[in-house]
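ARCHIVE CARD
Drawer: 12
Card no.: 0347
Subject: one protein chain, sequence and derived structure
Cross-reference: see card 0346
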Amino acid sequence: MARTANVFADTDFTKIMTDFRLPQIDPAAVMSMQKKNIDALTAANQIAFDSLRATAKRQSELVTLNVEAFTSATHSLTGAKSVEDQAVAQANYLKDAFERSFEQARELSELYTDTASKLADVLKARVVEVFGEAAELGVAAKKSATATIMPVVKK
């Protein structure tokens, strides 16, 4: 079996490694970036929590309004003198309940949409900042590296 020549036999790895430079990344800048990330997430969580609280409050108010409307409709139905009057009162209640439920659903969906929009704005702004900060870190790291990654050694 033929032996192959060792292509690395005449290579001076100590010279290669002395020319090898790693870029220096500023740890304070990285920590600052992470702090800003946490601040953005905290702001987003606060928006979500405030929205949840407002939505729960509004849903509670809507339940109260619907119970009052049902109570009023029940009084109208029981106070009707004839079957025809009861049918008219029931039809009116159902029409009002249907319209009210769609309006309430629209109102709640607008609350959700507004919250999602606010959250997206906060997170988008931070992501855009991160790209800018990462580019600045890359430029600074490139300046700190003084040699190429792996120079070619010629004989």
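Annotation on reverse: The chain is about 80% helix and 0% strand. Residues 44-116 form one domain.
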